[in-house]
Amino acid sequence: MHRASRGTYGSPRVYQALRKQGCRVGENRVARVMRTHGIKARVATIRYTNPTLQRFFSATRNEQLDVDLRSPDQVWVGEITYLKVGAIYRYLAVVMDRYSRRVLGWAYGKRKDVALTLRALDRAVRYRRPRARSDLPHRPGNRVRCSSLQGASCRAGHHPEHVRVPGASLSFPATPTHYLAQKTYPYNAAVLLPIDLRREHYEEHVAGTRWTGCRTDPFWTTEAPVIIRDRIVTELTASKLFARVSRVPSEPSDIVIRSEIHAFCSQAVGFIFLRVAGISALKITVERNGRALFQHKFERVVTDADPQYSGSQVGSIEQVMTVTIADSLRELLKDFFARFEREAQVGTLPNPSLQSGPAQAAGR
Prior knowledge:
The chain has helices spanning about 10-20, 25-35, 50-60, 115-130, 225-240, 315-345, 355-364, and strands spanning about 75-85, 90-95, 105-110, 145, 160-165, 185-190, 195, 240-245, 255-270, 275-290, 290-305, 355. It is of the alpha/beta class.
């Protein structure tokens, strides 16, 4: 009877069917026998939506709808849906170009999580390889804006509004350290281009916090090393820690500053209420005459709730993320400068006649 109904009959309906056929049996007995043999009716799973989330997204302005589409790769949109395969559910994430309506990437998996979304996005990026553009009316550079990849599934460093792709461009905020050296070294400090090792340190916890190196770094390819080198040069020059700062060594006696990038990204955790964190980790080596004077890994995390956060006036999540990265790098450089001066005081570094203060350094 249960098999004839294709598994849809439970004990009440099996009992009624047996009674119609003239079988004298009690309903409780039917239920007990079915339970003993593990026979039960198939039940459809009801998927409920969250009205609060629906109202939240309805009230959030979707900026990609205002873009004047003139060519492919201006706006990508995405969706996640669930598919019933047999008796279980699986999830499908799709990324589509809004101009051409072509599916650029997709991913299929057991869980609706960040990894599923990023697999679909990675396929789209590898397929199209978008490049930076200057002819878009809304802002220089390309961006993927997510319309239906909602909530925790569409994030850049775990954030639900924007996903960064190669070719996207962001201006890096100016966040000066205002560090003033106690003494000035009469050397040229040569700051070399950092080595980017972020991929080798993904998911590593930074600065003893729960925040980790991100797989969705906002500055791709050579952007991060150039940004970090230029910021180190700028802040070293302003601090008057050295008589001169350059990007290449000119003499063997120059102080050479090498660095490795272990983390340089931003994450946002949460959904309705986000907590954004900028994450920086650099392994810095100071050398002179080919000999390492000291080496240390500096790590800093700054969130939008910390007193070190300088973006209280910014207007979008994207800006908050870039500001927190800049703030974390600023605090890291302050740690580096202070550590350098401590090493000099204990005699770890070469100690020719140290000259006093920025004023005398400027007068040379």
